[in-house]
Amino acid sequence: MTVAYPRKFNNSLSARDILKRVVSDREIHLITLNRYRYNEQRSCKDLTELIEQLNGNPPELTRDLSHHISDESRHALWLTDLDLLVELGGPIDTPPGV
After folding, report:
1. Which of 17, 46, 68, 72 is the most buried (most CB within 10 A)?
2. 82 is a domain residue
3. 35/28 Cα distance (integer angstroms)
4. Structural domain that includes position 19
């Protein structure tokens, strides 16, 4: 899964400009946090499928991917449960858009 990071929007907005606008609008902020949560969660599924296709070969790659899944899972948990989206009353569903 590819995660796209914002660049300049039509050469007029930097990533910092976008962040200022997102955080100032509660609804967009919650959607953005939920999108990050969803991507972390989804990458666990995608990486697990890759490990299954590799069928243990090479073992080093399987080990590294397993560690990566663990990291992604912790990120999803942090965004979902540890006083972020749940505490803020935000959505934890499939986010809108692509």
Report:
1. 72
2. yes
3. 10
4. 15-88
Number of domains in the chain: 1
Does residue 6 have a cis bond before it (omega within 30 degrees)?
no
pLDDT tens, residue by residue, 28-75: 888 888 898 899 999 999 999 999 999 999 999 999 999 999 999 998
Question: Does residue 84 sit within a domain?
Answer: yes
In a domain, 6, yes or no: no
Question: In terms of pTM, does the model score above 0.90?
Answer: no
- What values do phi and psi take at 81, rounded to 5? -110, -30
Classify residue 97: in a domain, yes or no. Answer: no
For residue 47, the one-letter residue type is L
Largest CA distance in the chain: 47
Enumerate the H helices of 25-97 as residue ranges: 26-54, 59-80, 85-88
Task: Output DSSP code: residue 1.
Answer: -
- The encoded tokens of residue 32 equal 């953005």
